[in-house]
From TrEMBL, chains A, B:
<protein>
    <submittedName>
        <fullName>Transcriptional regulator, MarR family</fullName>
    </submittedName>
</protein>
<keyword id="KW-0804">Transcription</keyword>
<dbReference type="InterPro" id="IPR023187">
    <property type="entry name" value="Tscrpt_reg_MarR-type_CS"/>
</dbReference>
<dbReference type="GO" id="GO:0003677">
    <property type="term" value="F:DNA binding"/>
</dbReference>
<dbReference type="GO" id="GO:0006950">
    <property type="term" value="P:response to stress"/>
</dbReference>
<dbReference type="InterPro" id="IPR036390">
    <property type="entry name" value="WH_DNA-bd_sf"/>
</dbReference>
<dbReference type="Pfam" id="PF01047">
    <property type="entry name" value="MarR"/>
</dbReference>
<feature type="domain" description="HTH marR-type">
    <location>
        <begin position="4"/>
        <end position="137"/>
    </location>
</feature>
<dbReference type="InterPro" id="IPR000835">
    <property type="entry name" value="HTH_MarR-typ"/>
</dbReference>
<keyword id="KW-0805">Transcription regulation</keyword>
<keyword id="KW-0238">DNA-binding</keyword>
<dbReference type="InterPro" id="IPR036388">
    <property type="entry name" value="WH-like_DNA-bd_sf"/>
</dbReference>
<dbReference type="GO" id="GO:0003700">
    <property type="term" value="F:DNA-binding transcription factor activity"/>
</dbReference>
<dbReference type="InterPro" id="IPR039422">
    <property type="entry name" value="MarR/SlyA-like"/>
</dbReference>
Length: 141, 141
DNA sequence: TCAGATTCAATGCGTTTGCATCTACCTTAA
DNA sequence: TTAAGGTAGATGCAAACGCATTGAATCTGA
């Protein structure tokens, strides 16, 4: 059990250090990192995403995400249309401009990520992906 | 290089999932998770900590941290006294009440962490700690 | 079939955040 | 000694956040 807490603390520290490092990089242009994250999550799904689904992948409260999508839609980066199957819901997708913006920022950012993780061996990268994947899979209790 | 990006994405997802899980737990009382993090960082150092040092460990901008410490000091949880060696600086430490609060919240939270990470084997915990430790160590570029 | 419970997303509101800037102090070197 | 440059932390201000709540649509069981 102390091992678990050490591991979690170490993960948190790595997250903080790398996030600060990435945030300081001059690649974000007109977006914040959080906004980029939303665009990135949308870029991964070809079929439109539900608000609640997107919210599961983003570290924001539901109202904050709702308003952020609002702003991104106003800026023409995200398309928000009503879900025909569930009229409470909303279907989110990137506009062409949104996709373009995501790619333009994603390219240099991906390089930064690769550079930051280049201290790890390929085996370590695989282990890290496997272990964190296992952690994220265990969503419920 | 695609491996590095997969690993980072997986780490981010694990972080997001677990943070949401922890945040939803009913253990935080009068504190937010970010405030708890500040108290926790202070609880680890017996000698008073400098603002800038603390800022390195917390995912907050310098002004945001400055004001958070302000509020925590107003609430009697943190002691902020001028550094005799450098009169620009500040020495931060927990008050007895702050230490008590940190412990009261830290205990159940540590149990949650252990529970969430219980899907991993002891070897995986060690690997995770080692790998993330390596990542956090590489602070510059 | 329809009342109650649940889910999805939006909105009101007070608090917190980040950016830019400021003041105060330290350091260096001429 | 002192002027120039750098660092530590605080503050003004607009933007963004979280909590609580709402309105609307769906689901559920009697």
């Amino acid at each position: 059990m102390p091992r678990a807490n050490e591991a979690w603390e170490s993960l948190m520290k790595a997250y903080a250090v790398l996030m600060k490092q990435f945030n300081a990089e001059d690649v974000w242009g007109e977006l914040t990192m959080r906004e980029y994250d939303v665009l990135y999550q949308l870029s991964k799904c070809d079929s439109p995403l539900r608000m609640s689904e997107l919210n599961r992948h983003v570290l924001l409260s539901q109202p904050a995400l709702s308003r952020m999508v609002d702003r991104l839609a106003d800026r023409g980066l995200v398309d928000r249309c009503p879900d025909p199957g569930d009229r409470r819901g909303v279907r989110l997708s990137l506009t062409p401009a949104g996709r373009e913006t995501q790619r333009a920022i994603g390219r240099p950012h991906a390089r930064s990520v690769a550079r930051a993780l280049s201290v790890l061996t390929p085996q370590e990268l695989d282990q890290l992906a496997a272990i964190t994947g296992k952690l994220a899979g265990n969503e419920e209790r």
